Amino acid sequence: MTYKGTLDLRSAQATYDLFFFKEFHVSPGVLVYNGNNVTANASVPGGQSFTLNNTNYVSDVADPVSGTGKLAVYKAAPMLLVGFGNLVPRSRHFSTSFEIGAAYQGPPRVTLNLGGSACDSTGLFCRSISSDPTIQANVVSEQAKLNKSTSPYKFYPVLSFGVGFKF
Q1: What is the DSSP string of 66-81?
Q2: Backbone angles phi, psi at 150, to 5 degrees
Q3: pTM of the model
Q4: N or C end of the chain, less CB within 10 A?
Q5: Other C-beta atoms within 10 Å of 38: how many?
């Protein structure tokens, strides 16, 4: 199966800096909008084989397999950053800030939707993916395997560098 995907990295955050030593700070916060996701189009040219849930199929030449997939995370996520610097200095005109940390976005959720027709491994007995319960069960099982393989990625790394100038 061939996937062509798009990675969208869109998020907004709010943090509160707690200064402990001069410019060292800890910043608890939240990703108030976490629009980070992956969308993909899937396709299997007619006559080519593919596997769903360890079951081999052949894409129907007359109605090839195609579909979409999406990987998404929670829209809001708590975060914790540590860093150095202060973008609002009291005595200098130029300042910098560096922060590193992570946001807990929960386990990514994968959805997989396929259409077209799939044939048995000989390519003779073909049936519609959307109406065949056995193939649909294999699509659901494949989606569950994808969800299990992405479940360790619960944390989103955050790296920030800022530059400030006071007039």
Answers
A1: EEEEEEE--S-EEEEE
A2: -95, -10
A3: 0.75
A4: C
A5: 18
